[in-house]
Design brief:
heterodimer; A: mainly alpha; Arp2/3 complex 21 kDa subunit ARPC3; two-stranded antiparallel ribbon; 2 strands; 2% strand; globular; disordered C terminus; B: mainly alpha; 2 domains; 0% strand; extended
Chain lengths: 187, 197
């Protein structure tokens, strides 16, 4: 890993921290607060690729765990990993991994639609799979009920996947970070 | 710059090694999940609260640790009350309250830098696999330095887009911010390499 890789990893960890500073938007009908922060892992994966994106998200969570109040609302510390919904935080690592892996694979023919699809798969499908199973396991409640309790967050997450996709394809055009050689889809 | 959740003090808990406290937490958590009765969990809660008192954590700070999880714990309590009974619902919520408070106690009594150092020591065996733990320290230092830099760049971008009447579009803010900071990152990497790491 080069110095440049480490700087990029640190940069997206810092970006994820900064996205937590924006005040949460509240969807009027559902009254569910959505924060911009979960854009961070999708962007890290989609802009930096699987390896750097995953390490970047991991680094962010380590900084939270050692006691920096970097999560939205100024939360932080090991305590946030002790709560029943910690799977939705740990899952971010796999969000970045999934979005990064898929983006690398389809790098040479990436469109907004593909990037949106990848963001939905990594940022919603994979994230909820981990988060919901975590809740179901540590709290001993059925998976279906856990899903119903969190379904109100999905519309906000779809909007975020759209924003992430737009950013990923625009940055790809303006300042591509994934080397074509790393894109395994085409040689 | 960025604050920390550390609460300065000189209690015995503050003086315990960071690595020991961090390692004790998962052990404690595992034990908690094996306990399925109210009385031992209530005793664990009393113990954790006593330790907070020993570390001189103000009571309102103790309550603040629980606030972010309060909503979901209430949902879990009601759900469990409906699916099972009062005692199971109490066990579930009590267990999380104890675990969250214990974890918060580690955060409150341990400096972030000490936890990072403990983590670096724990990662040292990875050095044999070709990973360099010093790069981990560099990444942490750079992240902490980048957060205020990003805030400044974000404000500049916002000003520029406001002049064009585009400051309401998140895309018009995020893309220039990311591209500008990626260019900055390349300059930083060159500077670090030029100085020999």
């Amino acid at each position: 890993m080069t110095t440049r890789d480490i700087v990029h990893i640190a940069l997206f960890a810092a970006l994820t921290a900064m996205l937590g500073i924006f005040p949460p938007l509240t969807i009027p009908v559902l009254a569910v607060p959505i924060t911009a922060q979960s854009l961070g892992p999708m962007l890290a994966g989609g802009v930096l690729g699987a390896k750097r994106g995953t390490l970047s998200t991991l680094l962010f969570l380590v900084l939270v765990a050692v006691g920096l109040p970097l999560l939205s609302g100024g939360r932080g510390g090991i305590g946030v990993f002790a709560g029943p919904t910690a799977g939705f935080l740990v899952g971010w690592v796999f969000t970045a991994l999934t979005v990064g892996f898929l983006t690398e694979r389809f790098w040479s023919r990436l469109t907004f639609v593909l990037a949106f699809l990848f963001s939905v798969v990594g940022g919603i499908l994979v994230l909820y799979l981990i988060g919901l199973n975590w809740v179901a396991m540590v709290a001993g409640i059925p998976l279906g009920r856990a899903f119903l309790a969190s379904a109100a967050f999905i519309p906000g997450d779809v909007i975020k996947a759209g924003i992430a996709a737009a950013v990923i394809v625009t940055v790809r055009r303006a300042y591509p970070m994934i080397q074509p050689a790393a894109a395994l889809g085409r040689r | 710059m960025i604050g920390s959740l550390y609460l300065p003090g000189r209690s015995p808990l503050h003086r315990l090694p960071a690595g020991l406290k961090a390692a004790a937490l998962p052990v404690f958590g595992t034990v908690l999940f094996l306990v399925e009765r109210i009385v031992p969990l209530a005793a664990a809660l009393a113990l954790v609260i006593a330790l907070h008192a020993l570390a001189r954590v103000p009571p309102r700070l103790v309550l603040r640790q629980l606030r972010p999880a309060a909503g979901i714990l209430l949902v879990l309590f009601l759900s469990q009350l409906w699916l099972a009974d009062l005692s199971e619902a109490t066990v579930l919520v009590l267990r999380f309250v104890v675990l969250i408070l214990a974890a918060a106690l580690v955060t409150l009594t341990t400096r972030s830098a000490d936890l990072v150092a403990a983590l670096e020591r724990a990662l040292r065996p990875l050095g044999m696999l070709g990973a360099d733990p010093r790069k981990f320290g560099l990444a942490i230092a750079l992240t902490l330095r980048f957060i205020p830099v990003l805030a400044v760049v974000a404000e500049e971008v916002r000003e520029a887009q406001r002049a064009r009447g585009r400051d309401r579009s998140i895309l018009a803010l995020a893309v220039p911010l990311i591209v500008r900071t990626l260019k900055l990152a390349d300059e930083v990497a060159e500077a670090i390499d030029a100085r020999g790491g």
